[in-house]
TrEMBL record:
<feature type="transmembrane region" description="Helical">
    <location>
        <begin position="38"/>
        <end position="58"/>
    </location>
</feature>
<keyword id="KW-0249">Electron transport</keyword>
<dbReference type="GO" id="GO:0005886">
    <property type="term" value="C:plasma membrane"/>
</dbReference>
<keyword id="KW-0812">Transmembrane</keyword>
<dbReference type="InterPro" id="IPR016174">
    <property type="entry name" value="Di-haem_cyt_TM"/>
</dbReference>
<keyword id="KW-0472">Membrane</keyword>
<keyword id="KW-0479">Metal-binding</keyword>
<keyword id="KW-0813">Transport</keyword>
<dbReference type="InterPro" id="IPR011577">
    <property type="entry name" value="Cyt_b561_bac/Ni-Hgenase"/>
</dbReference>
<dbReference type="InterPro" id="IPR052168">
    <property type="entry name" value="Cytochrome_b561_oxidase"/>
</dbReference>
<keyword id="KW-0349">Heme</keyword>
<keyword id="KW-0408">Iron</keyword>
<feature type="domain" description="Cytochrome b561 bacterial/Ni-hydrogenase">
    <location>
        <begin position="32"/>
        <end position="197"/>
    </location>
</feature>
<keyword id="KW-1133">Transmembrane helix</keyword>
<dbReference type="GO" id="GO:0022904">
    <property type="term" value="P:respiratory electron transport chain"/>
</dbReference>
<dbReference type="GO" id="GO:0009055">
    <property type="term" value="F:electron transfer activity"/>
</dbReference>
<feature type="compositionally biased region" description="Polar residues">
    <location>
        <begin position="1"/>
        <end position="11"/>
    </location>
</feature>
Length: 202
């Protein structure tokens, strides 16, 4: 499969036509699948909730809130793993209108990097807490098993890796939101409508 913005319209139209008449599980060159759209907004809600809870915990540590944070991270990981796999193995919908090719490449690169980061960051956080000897507790008294014995040096390494990944992730997320706002308010195209499941003209 190709994610190149130069993919032929003929190829993606043929691929999209083949998917008609049955439930579309995978993206095609003509649009996102209902699965992709639903998971996009679920992940958006999870990420915003995680960021909000992180900020709240910095202001006022709370054990129950920390457990909710762990739960959200545990939910985010498998969803993000599937999204990343689906993204790199499916056609990516053609851009709307006639955008700058450089902007298309940048936006798709940022989106792919964000998808990968949402797989790696929960794992890095889990490893950092496990290496530090902290229990990854969930609401209801459940505990996610630690994959390693406490190790101060490893904990420091994983913590640094998490912070290294989290900073560009937040910047990439801001860039992604900026691009969405530009499409909707400045370019006034149907990019947002497409992500809401509406059928739009390319």
């Amino acid at each position: 499969m190709s994610n190149s913005p130069m993919s032929s319209t003929h190829d993606v139209q043929a691929h999209g036509t083949h998917a008609q008449g049955r439930l579309q599980w995978r993206d095609t060159g003509l649009g996102f699948s209902p699965v992709t759209i639903a998971l996009h907004w679920i992940v958006a809600a999870l990420v915003l909730a995680i960021i909000g809870i992180e900020i709240a915990l910095v202001a006022s540590p709370n054990v129950e809130l920390a457990r909710v944070l762990n739960l959200l991270g545990a939910i985010l990981f498998p969803i993000s793993a599937y999204r990343f796999w689906a993204r790199v193995t499916s056609w990516h919908p053609l851009p709307l209108g006639t955008p700058n090719p450089v902007e298309v490449i940048v936006s798709r690169s940022v989106a792919t990097a964000l998808a990968l980061a949402m797989v790696l960051l929960p794992v890095a956080a889990w490893l950092a807490k496990s290496a530090a000897g902290q229990l990854v507790e969930l609401p209801g008294g459940w505990i996610i098993p630690s994959p390693m014995h406490p190790n101060a040096q490893a904990a420091q390494v994983f913590d640094v890796l998490f912070k290294i990944g989290a900073t560009p992730f937040v910047l990439g997320l801001a860039l992604h939101i900026f691009g969405a706002c530009k499409n909707h308010f400045v370019l006034k195209n149907d990019a947002l409508k497409r992500m809401l499941g509406k059928r739009v003209e390319l």
